[in-house]
Amino acid sequence: MIFRTATIDDVPAIVALLANDKLGSQREVNTTPLPQTYLQAFNLIDSDPNQELIVMEKESIIGTFQLTYIPYLTYQGGIRAQIEAARIHENHRGKGLGQKMIVWAIARAKDRGAHVIQLTTDKQRPEAIRFYEKLGFRSTHEGMKLHF
Amino acid sequence: MIFRTATIDDVPAIVALLANDKLGSQREVNTTPLPQTYLQAFNLIDSDPNQELIVMEKESIIGTFQLTYIPYLTYQGGIRAQIEAARIHENHRGKGLGQKMIVWAIARAKDRGAHVIQLTTDKQRPEAIRFYEKLGFRSTHEGMKLHF
Fold first, then answer.
1. Please, which of A96, A116, B137, B140 could form a disulfide with B132 given CB 3.0 to 4.6 Å?
2. Hey, how many other C-beta atoms are within 10 angstroms of the C-beta on B141?
3. Residues B110 and A125: beta-carbon distance below 8 Å
4. C-alpha span between B117 and B108 (Å, rounded)
5. Distance between CA atoms of residues A38 and B99, nearest Å
6. Which of B30, B68, B74, B104 to mutate to test the interface with A (most CBs of A within 10 A)?
7. Strand partners, A37
8. Cβ distance B101 to B131 under 8 Å?
9. How far is CA A37 from CA A22, A26, B17, B79, B92, in A?
């Protein structure tokens, strides 16, 4: 099993993971070919050194997440790492792979000099909240969103 | 009153705002001169087109926040705007300036093509949660952090 940066050829497999989810199925469009907006977004991510779109692969792609590094003045000018869009393929759940993936992300964020790693998870995913708490995350903040 | 992008000369005033806070006072070092790490972080922010460190000014700096634009594959390849490090000077609170500032941030995020604006706020700041809810934000997510 390897972790690597995604290429544009991985985008369909990643979108399939994002769409195969009770929340994701309502907001993604997993057609062949994919809407161009996914490829445009991939190019923005791929050209930005503060974005890392990662895939976990074992023969095929079985997991994905995106890491973002954000420089702030807070915490004496610290870098924060942020996890988003983390998914494990439905055929590979319940085997500890999600834990392996997030442990890898934590190590990567430390390597990049972050002082904290953060994420928000929908309150409709209580199992995700427990999963992250077991890995050491603390639910100290409200995650607030305003959709346009 | 104007909103503008911060310059390096504004960093001491911004750090003073960040430090003058029950949580910020424990994590910032507001000395003269400032620790170099703040200026290094400013340069990272200033050179990144996806970061906007904004000050609200009326004779002096009375407010600040940082906007970050993050490209994701989720939501069909959408841009998210994220607010962090929002503060109003203690002498200027209770006058609706915080609301003006966040309303400006929301408009700015829309101009930049974001489909959502998000933030996390410490659960120790219930007044901040109510403030953002009045502006249309919904507390749908847990904000989870792991400090190194």
1. B137
2. 22
3. no
4. 10
5. 34
6. B74
7. none
8. no
9. 22, 17, 39, 11, 43
Helix-strand-coil split of chain B, %, nearest 5: 40, 35, 25
Chain A residues touching B83 at Cβ < 8 A: none
Contacts of B142 in chain A (CB under 8 A): 120-121, 123, 129, 139, 141-143
Q: How far is CA B50 from CA A43, A68, B44, B45, in A?
A: 14, 11, 11, 8
Q: Is A81 exposed, middle or buried (CB count within 10 Å of its CB: 0-12, 13-18, 19+)?
A: buried
Q: Tell me B34's DSSP state.
A: P
B/e letters for A54-72, b = 16+ CB within 10 Å, e = fewer, are bbbbeeebbbbbbbbbbbb
Among A117, A112, A68, A102, smallest CA distance to B144 is for: A117
- Mean pLDDT of successive 10-residue stretches along chain B, which has 148 residues: 98 97 90 97 97 97 98 97 96 95 98 98 94 97 98
Q: Look at the block and give the residue holding tokens 């807070």.
A: A74
For residues B54 and A93, give the distance between their C-alpha atoms in angstroms, rounded to a whole number.
43
| Cβ(A141)–Cβ(B121) below 8 Å | yes
Question: Quick one: how far is CA B68 from the chain centroid?
Answer: 9
What number is the ipTM of this complex?
0.95
Q: Tell me the pLDDT tens digit for each residue of A108-129.
A: 999 999 999 999 999 999 999 9
Determine the Cα–Cα distance for residues A18 and A89; give it in Å rounded to an integer.
Answer: 9
Look-up of token digits 């998914």: A87
Question: In the prediction, which pLDDT does B22 show?
Answer: 83
